[in-house]
Amino acid sequence: MVASGRKRSRRAPIPAPSSPPRPPPPAPQSPPQLTSLLALLASSVTLALRFASDRDLLLLPSQTLALDPLLLSAARAVSRLLALLPLHLQTLTLTSLSLSPPTASPPLPSSWFLRLLSSPSLSDSTWRDAFRMSKPAFFQLLHSLELPAPDFSSSSSFSSLALPPDHKLGAALFRLAHAAPARAVARRFGLPSPAVVALAFYEVCRAIADRLAVLLDLGAPDRISRAVPGFCALSLPNCCGALGYALFGDAVIAQALVDADGRFLDVSVGWDPSMAPAEILPRTKLCTSQSIVLANAPQGELIGGSVPRYFLGPACCPLLPWLVTPYKEMGATDDLSKENIFNHVHAHGMQVMKNTFGHVRARWRLLGECWKGECQEALPYVVVAGCLLHNFLVKCGEPMPEEIQGDANADLFVDFEGEKDKEGGRIRDVLAAHLSLVSRNQ
Q1: pTM of the prediction?
Q2: Residue 3: how many CB atoms within 10 A of its CB?
Q3: Which of 69, 102, 173, 371 has a CB 3.0–4.6 Å from the CB of 249, allowing a cystine?
Q4: What is the band of 407 on the pLDDT scale with cuts at 50, 70, 90?
Q5: What angle do CA 374, 377, 379 make, to 5 degrees?
Q6: What is each CA distance from 238 to 50, 187, 299, 308, 432, in whole angstroms?
Q7: How far is CA 291 from CA 314, 321, 401, 424, in A?
Q8: What is the spatial distance between Cα 184 and Cα 169, in angstroms, rounded to a whole number?
């Protein structure tokens, strides 16, 4: 018997039930409150930037210069916060914040300076806050400097030629007055770059040195004789000026001679800070020309002798027939001695020199900054420009700054310890005897 067999079918194994696929992790959610807060913060910063840009005539330059970097830093910080939000939650775009002040609304001129020019109702105080001079003095200076107008037909670069003269002068004075960064000056005057600001600044300084140099002509007729009455009023007969020294930019020493009204008669700048005034003086034009400048002048006849015309000098300089310095410290001697009386009057006369330097520093803040590297080469010209501008503003009748900025390096110059000149000693003694007699009769 043949047995018949059935072929067993092989069943596929039943798969084990699989777990459902895991959903992707949810995107990190930003709390609605944070998004709303960032939106409010972005809006606030944008409005603040727009106000600082369009309504900056309402602010003092010092306020604007302090506010601008704070607002720009806030804008950058908010931009970084917005960039951290997930893309699908960025309801605010980074373009809603600009890293520079937004452009002015159409009715307003495009730069702070143009808005200033187009606001005739503004008082002179606004111009003095910005440029340290009134509007009439600004335009008188602009006329005197004869800065070249833009030459658009030339192939030269924009930065060297295509700036209106009033923009060049305004940018240079604003930087000089406030020690403003070149980038901030470029924004306020609508200039294309900080490099253009630097070019305009040095072009104006050169023009000031060339066009206003006559204001420092010591040999001009009657320049010295006009200085005598002012010092006579300070009980210094036949005195023609006060000589002093100052350190600028921690880089150069300036020697200057001023009259009793605080006008510069002579300026020599660029001396190394390591040099003593006694070393500087013999190398200056003043030392070589004083015999001509003071020649043929009448002697002052005082009780005890005659006194030629002379300049007051600080204790760091040698006593000379034409440069009268104070007596050395007299210690605990009688305050009514002729030496102490002379020193008191001498110090009063020298204060005119110190105040003049103080006014220049207060008016032109850039001169008080620390100059380093290649900039030091230009510093002497900038200091001379500041002194010439000072004389120009005195001539225009502009008020002196209320503030007098002192010299932090006043103790830099030590007293001269060399031998005194015999004729210089005689002149000083005659002046001291005269002042002592005057004080007793008062």
Answers
A1: 0.79
A2: 4
A3: 371
A4: low
A5: 110
A6: 60, 52, 8, 7, 14
A7: 19, 10, 35, 14
A8: 16
SS3 409: coil
How far, CA to CA in Å, does 182 sit from each of 26, 186, 228? 49, 6, 43
pLDDT of 138 reads 97
Angle between helices 124-131 and 135-145 (to 10 degrees): 50
Is residue 297 within 8 A of residue 221, CB to CB? The reply is no
| Of 192, 184, 194, 245, nearest in space to 52 by CA | 184
Helix (H/G/I), strand (E/B), else coil: 302: strand
212: tokens are: 């206003």
Task: Report which DSSP code applies to 92.
Answer: S
Return the SS3 of 248.
strand
Residue 22 phi, psi dihedral angles, 5° rounding = -75, 135
Number of neighbouring beta carbons within 10 Å of residue 386: 24
Give the pLDDT score at 309: 93
Residue 46's alpha-carbon distances to 16, 33, 103, 241, in angstroms, are 61, 20, 11, 56
Helix (H, G, I), strand (E, B) or coil at 271: strand
SS3 for 134? coil
The C-alpha atoms of residue 85 and residue 40 are separated, in whole angstroms, by: 15
CA angle in degrees (0–180, nearest 5) for 213-214-215: 90
Cβ partners under 8 Å of residue 244, min gap 6: 255, 256, 258, 314, 350, 353, 354, 357
C-alpha–C-alpha distance, residues 420 and 418, integer Å: 7
Which DSSP helix (H) or strand (E) runs through 258? strand 252-258
Separation in Å, CA 376 to CA 247, 286, 371, 372: 13, 24, 6, 6
Highest mean pLDDT among 122-131, 241-250, 329-338, 433-442: 241-250
How far, rounded to the nearest angstrom, does the alpha carbon of residue 427 sit from its chain's CA centroid? 40
Identity of the residue numbered 253: I
